[in-house]
Amino acid sequence: MQLAFVDEMGDAKLQAYLGICVAMMNARFYPSLKRKTQEILTDVGWSPQVEFKGSHLFSASTGCTDVEIQKRIDAARQLLDLNVAGANSRMQFHYGRMQSENHGQSYLDHLPTLLDKCLPKAPSGAGKNLLVVVCDERSDVAATKLHAALEPVTRGKKWVLLEHVIKAKSG
Prior knowledge:
By secondary structure, the protein is an alpha/beta fold.
């Protein structure tokens, strides 16, 4: 089973900026990666109720305010080290950026292209062609439209989507 995690980012100063990132990984690596990630965040005192975001890294007033900035930087370094490998990496990241006046529509228009570029042809074998796509919750993108936009890409590469695309609350 393959996992695709989709995240988007904007910029408060550059309102038209929209970035989309797809993180791809084989599901067999997920439990270990999640456990190590949670251990790193717990060790620095980051509350599991607060999302760890790059925009919170250098801010004493956002994110988990109980954690000092140096500990945030140390946690970020350790988290990045989990994803660095010279060979046989566990996770691949793919990124696209654009200028947009309608982020919801641009997300729907451009995410399928990005997914098409990073999603390999499905392997053969029982259950090996199962794909889970997890996207952030977005009020401007309906789950049915998101699924309809991504389904032709996944079908064309012979992947079987596990139910519908999952819109998850960030955590």
